[in-house]
Amino acid sequence: MNNKMIQKSEAGARPAPLEPAIRGASAAEIARSVEASIHEGRLRPGQRLPAVRALAARLAVSPTTVSAAYRALRARGLVSGAGRRGTCVRGRPPLRTAPAPLVPAGALDLATGNPAPALLAPLRAALARIDAAPHLYAEEHQLPALRRIAEREFARDGLPAEHLAVVSGALDGIERVLAAQLRPGDRVAVEDPGFSNLLDLVAALGLEPVPVALDDRGPLPESLERALDRGVEALVVTPRAQNPTGAALDAPRAAELRKVLRGHPSVLVVEDDHAAAVAGAAACTLWERGRERWALVRSTAKTHGPDLRVALLVGDRETIGRVEGRQRIGFRWVSHLLQRIVAELESDPATRRRVRRAARTYAERRRSLVEALAARGIEAHGRSGLNVWIPVPEEAAAVQQLLAAGYAVSAGERFRIESGPAIRVTISRLPPPAAPALAEAIAGALRPRRRSAAA
Ligand SMILES: Cc1ncc(COP(=O)(O)O)c(C=O)c1O
User: What residues are paired with 192 via a beta bridge?
Assistant: First the structure.
């Protein structure tokens, strides 16, 4: 990624094909009616809402009333955008909606960012070894064996683990940390491009994202500085296996970013180590002694599979104390059966060897595709993780052409704020011998099409 990736994205919203049946005489009624339309699928993700003035005229209310309704929907993460660009339903509003279209039959699924099932540890033996004793209310929430493993691992990476919570995955940890420390309306600096679920989560919490540009070595210090100067309360960074670009921090970049952060001592720094040992890059952190508010979450979702989504969250005393306190009221604890399985897998030498092998396999798969693309003169990014990010002039056309060639890939739009168009290819299940054919199909999809005679 370079400056090309920082260019402004075009507003790609689909117009509403039919005027949805939005009703109401007050802002609250209008907002509820839009919500019901999204819920029932009459307003689809990406679809544009009627312009404020047009809707106000149709409902015989003032434009201020419609604006207030749209503002309330935006604060809840249901819609995004405003002004002349129009207001659109978010790609993944925090509502139960019709499921996203599945990968068409016959297409190779390179769109869902899953780990490769064949590279995950088989569970049957681990299940047979775990203690199946019931875990009861008022007992210790953290499994001591898992805590010991976590303390050892974090100490190896130079991170204090004195304050530690067990959560249900990286995103669960991030959500709990942001909810514990931020309030709706607060600004949070996020990578751009960045993980789509995080962007949706930030919107759902009513927070305002401030984009930070990045290259293959992580956030750019000058872009971070600009974001911090806009008064952000928190920064969320993916130190390795950045999704979608594969960026990974190295020690010099981490040092530069820490220097920038030193000028903003109260900003909460959250690190998302979702791929941990299969990332294919060494652990590298923005934490340093003296940082007031920080958290780092390390998940097992990519090493042992998303269904074993247990994550270890470390941070400062206040942040972790608030997260644990809140957890104890509602969620209580992560099932001890899950904690025992993870502790069992993490302490099994055969599983650890398998995880190292999986990291090498993902690295080979990334490299094969990046090199096959480079051989065809195509820029691609994939320093770590499960994905390769390929800048393209036009996402929808590239995705369609690749689908016609039998490959389902992700359009980059849901990962971007201001950065330029691209596609994301998940390489986790792409064997190296298959890379040249895919690279050829990508090259075909990027070739400018000849204009038709009539155009
Ligand atoms: C950057 C990033 N963070 C978090 C997650 C999700 O992790 P978890 O399942 O542990 O919540 C993913 C999943 O792909 C991801 O790419």
Answer: 213
CA 397/CA 66 separation, integer angstroms: 35
Q: How many CB atoms lie within 10 A of CB 387?
A: 27
Q: Measure 68 CA to ligand 1 centroid, in angstroms.
A: 34
Closest Cα partner for 187 from 150, 226, 152, 158? 226
Q: What span, in angstroms and rounded, lies between the C-alpha atoms of 172 and 310?
A: 9
Nearest CA to ligand 1 atom 7: 170
| Interval 186-194 mean pLDDT | 98
Summarised one tens digit per residue, pLDDT across range 249-299 is 999 999 999 999 999 999 999 999 999 999 999 999 999 999 999 999 999
At residue 297, the 3 state secondary structure works out as strand
Ligand 1 pocket by C-beta < 6 Å: which residues? Answer: 113, 169-171, 195, 238, 243, 272, 274, 299, 301, 306, 309, 311
Query: Looking at this protein, which amino acid is placed at residue 185?
Result: G
Q: What is the pLDDT of residues 218-230, one digit of tens each?
A: 999 999 999 999 9
How big is the chain, counted in residues? 455
Q: Which one of 243, 342, 388, 424 would you pick to mutate in the ligand 1 pocket, going by the greatest count of ligand atoms within 8 A of its CB? A: 243
